[in-house]
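# nightly structure sweep
# worker-07 picked up a monomer target from the shared queue
# config: single-sequence mode, recycle default, output format = structure tokens
# input follows
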Amino acid sequence: MDKERQFGTGDAFMLAAVGAWGVNFPIAKTVLGEMQPEVFSATRYLAASFFIFLILIVRRERFSINLHEGIQLIGLGLLGITIFQGCWSFGLAMTQASKASVLIATTPIFGAIYAGFTGKWPSPKAWFGIGLSMVGVVLLVNNSFTQLNIGGGSLNGDLLILLGAIIWAIYTAASGPMIMKRGVLVVMAWGMLFGSLILMIFAYPGIMAQDWTAISPVAWASWSFSTIIGAAFAFVWYYQGFARLGITRAMVYTYLIPVVAVVTSVAFFGETLSFIQVGGAIIVLLGISLSRAN
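# output follows
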């Protein structure tokens, strides 16, 4: 067997990461039933940043930054944590976890479009994949061949998730140079810290109004999983796998995130998807695969 095709440590890290992220969608949905979205995101990522800093301390890696780096990391935190998490948490609160996981998986599509605006135009095959994914998104969100469904909280949630996918695509491109310079863990730790502190400003009224004693043990357990596993360790596992496998093989695993999320949501959390929505999800994933082929 070709050595590159053998299952190894990198594959194990990637499976752990996508499994954690996939399961996190319905688990986070559970927390949002008892905690306001902005409160959930602010507290979750503030705590997650502490875990990342702890990992850096244990590994004895330098994480001090200068003023110029601090300003850049504040901007990245604002984009990747404050704005993205605002879209993600509010959107998830208003729509199905299964749909949200497929919609957020369109990030590579918007990344390809963003690359086009920077002069790196996708191939015709990739553009076909982009168009195909957009058709799938419409089917998944609209859930009808014969009429246009444009009302309701679910649509607002879907649109927020799509906006989050756009924001994350821009954040991924913008954070690249800093990650190359300082490493993933340092950028993640400071970005999460700065982004969550900014989010705390907007979440403060909700934090003060939150009845913390009324939150159920199940919700606290879900919050803990989403914070420690979904927001901290999963990123570490992902980039450990990414470093071992390279971008091509690593990106294949990301297609499993919505699969895990949909299976978990339907099997354990009682969500349902129509045949039209299942077909739309398959079309989205096929389009993403085509857009990343080159």
